[in-house]
Amino acid sequence: MTITAAVLLLAFAALFYFQAYTLKRHSAHELAVIGELTAHECAAAVRFKDEDAATQILTGLRTMPQIVSARLELLDKQRLAFFGSAREEGEIQGARVTSGVKFNGDRILLAQPVTLSGVREGTLYLLADLHATRSQLLKLYGGIFGLVLLACLLLAFALSGQFLRFVTDPILRLADTARTVADHSDYSVRARKVCNDEVGLLTDAFNQMLAQIQAQDSAVRKAEEKYRLIFENAIEGMFQSTPGGKYLNVNAAFARMYGCDSPEEIITQVSDIAETTYVDPARREEFKRLIETHGVVELFEYEAYRKDGTKMWLCENARAVRDVTGAILYYEGTVQDVTERKRVEEVERASKAKTEFLSRVSHELRTPLNAIIGFGQLLDRQSPTKTQRPRIRHILSAGKHLLGLINEVLDISRIEAGRLHLSVEPVAVADMLEEALDLMRPLAAERKIELCAEVEMDAAVYVMADRQRFKQVLLNLLTNAVKYTPESGQVAVSYYSNGDNNIRITVSDTGPGIPAEKLGRLFMPFERLGAEQSNVEGTGLGLALSQRLMHAMGGAIGVEFSAPRGSKFWVELPRAKSPLPKAVPHKRNGSGRRENSKAVTRKVLYIEDNFSNLALIEEMFAERPQFELLTAMQGKVGLDLARQHSPDLILLDLHLPDLDGHEVLRQLKSLDTTRDVPVVVISADATASQIDRLMKAGAMAYLTKPLDVVEFFRVVDQTTATGGTTGTRQKHSTAVLAINDN
Length: 742
Ligand code: ADP
Hints:
- The chain is of the alpha+beta class.
């Protein structure tokens, strides 16, 4: 309506001014016509200066309302006739026009020359005032404008009332829809579209926006649902807690862990986590210290109380969630019940401690035993009386039995403590069996037992095994077979591939066998299955140790049958490819060594507890078939071997598990049988004082590790060149077993 009024006002103003202008022009034209007529009429009166006639003519002009003054003057500007006021006369004279029209506001002044017969006689002035006419015009327009304005406003009001609904209704509907969405968070409602104009477009855009929000809302809901399910169904306990020590949120698993029925129970009941749940509240302080400094805490273990007061071990991962200022808002994290793991760890720790204890005790027992056997042997050599001799033999046999027992216990405890060092490599089965059979022959001959190989030995069959340990197991099975089989019986070895890429080696005998009901206890330590009542010596540890060794090498051991007549034991090892060609000469030399054992001219004993060093020296001697290498991994065993075999050379390491290298050397030099055997020390310790000490103690040479092969053989050749011969020395079967046991 304002716009309508403004437009009308402008239109009327323009019209009014146009009218006023037209009126002025029209009046000037009218005045000019009147002036001309009047000048013509009064031309004669002017020539003859007839004032009366002139005045009469001018008076006739008074009838025209707009002409307010008229003046007729002669050429010398003398007034001939006039009407009007003195002020108007002054205005006419002041205008100084001689002909034409002059506008001055609402006033129009006309100067009309008076001529007679073409000669100018004077001038007629007419002064008109349009003020009254214009006022009338203004009044008229004002009236019309008022009426038209009123009519227009009424019309505009009436029409807009009608048309407004078309515009506002859809917008109001949109607003309504928006309100519904906001009030109920229901993004599925849509605004109804009524027309295709701008409002229609707006409705479309609004609906489109709602559709997008709806899609996003449902995606958010789904994600929320997913995480809620993960949180609620997680196996791990999850929590959010305040730094003050209250739970904000926990999941079902967390509540279960604490023995609570629901998460709500734990949230409402626990007012101070440190006080209520921590067995040691100081641990909570530690937790807070860690999380405040690092922001996260990983694998934090602590003991906590369950609802029923029992204790459990928990393992927690947590992080601090901070606000923009860096202040901690809350902690969140996961918790696992590790009580069972802790218990197992505790048991393992105890078991390890037990094994270590056993290992130490075994070591400690060997020292006095060494004295018992050593002095027993001394006594035996000092021509004892008839009654003393069997007593000494008893001491010696009991001592050896005890030594065997301790060695086996030590081995078992080593395996269980995980300290058994194995060097697993391809080993030729045929070679190994032949070596073992060779070693068994004296005992078998003693008991009139026939030893035989049931199959053609194929040198190309290899298994993955640690040489020493494999031989130890084979010897144990063979010894048992020979021991438990009555005289004139038979012991046979055989091997075959069992199809699983494993090689199975069997040892069978014609002995009494093992009753089926006892088989279950066969591999238990100290189980002799009744043999303790017989006069067959044993410890009950051999098979238990063999089983552990086989497992450690990735193999297996078992009994195929143990019928009333004889038993058949087996061991299985993974088959190996034959080693690289480089190693072939070693094998050939090895077998050559055995076949031509009579041709062996030099015996070397190497006392060393490290498997890799042993393997290295073995490899080095493989190139020298004229040397037979004996090895011992303990000083004591080395001494025994030295006594029994009187080797041509002893290679001695200084760090041995039982005796110190110095001590070994001292004992070697103090015994008649070994005093003259040259000893070469091989050690990583290269200090001058150490070398000096050992050379003074009687060592022939001192070599430092890593070994220089050329230098090593130079020393070996030099020291053995002057050594004694081996021909006269006896080969003692128990001594040979002692080598292989180690
Ligand atoms: P031991 O030192 O007693 O020989 P082992 O662990 O080697 O201990 O053997 C455990 C038991 O199994 C033996 O005591 C013996 O009763 C029985 N045994 C082992 N091998 C044979 C076999 N070849 N024939 C009969 N019995 C055997």
